[in-house]
Fold this sequence. Notes:
Chain A has seven helices and six strands. By secondary structure, chain A is an alpha/beta fold.
Amino acid sequence: MASAIIDATKPASVVEQFLRSDLFIPELRSHKKASVLEEMVEALARAGVTRNPEVVLTLLHEREALGSTAIGKGVAVPHGRSVLIGERAVVCARSSEGVDFDAPDGAPVKLFFLLVAPAVERDPIYLKLLAEVVRAVRLSKNRQQLLKAPHFAGVREALLHGAE
Amino acid sequence: MALSEQLEALVQLQDIDLMLREVRDPEMAHQEERLGFAIENVDHLERARRKIARRIDERLLQTYERMSRRFVRVVVMVERSVCQGCRMSLPTSTASRNTSSLAIENCENCGRILYRP
Lengths: 164, 117
């Protein structure tokens, strides 16, 4: 009973609601920053998150020009909001070789999490989602699990565990 | 430029405006930087905005600028005949309007510019 009370009061993970196997790219074909973004936006379009991939891609390029969304240690979290995005979504993608993404530590990026959301004035869920993804990749063991997980289920588990 | 391209440019302008609003909001900018995201080149965004604005018909741009004082999102999608700005159902005549029409569509309830993907 006591544990049930503890579970009920534990803040719910936001990232859990937005992880989808059809938005998981186990190995990116692309080796360049621009084409990585393109490949991830293609996944969004295939999944029906947007019907305007070109506009979403432009938005992400503008965000990268503002400053890289690579956060170091081989991780990048490109993100953006537009009225042309129908729902919040997270694309998880990996590159075993790594991609130059203008990271602050200069390390090639091997883990990508593209976060998109519809444009609304204030979206606390979007901000929480960003924070949970960043928290999930802070620990080296989580990053290793995210890189090595053979299936989406392992990636999901590592993200949820890390975001706690 | 065709109407659909004009509207697309207007959406791009709006996306940049939202980003500029966020980087100029000290609380939002602090949150992004605290998470490790770089915000270094606001000038680039302002230049990109000017470049996109030049592609948009002057009257349409003026309408957008005027309405953006009232709404954060001036251009909104139409989903299942519902304006995604105010969530009101659009009259059948507007809802089924031919998208190749040269006139900009506005929501009869809130006045926002309607975009049909």
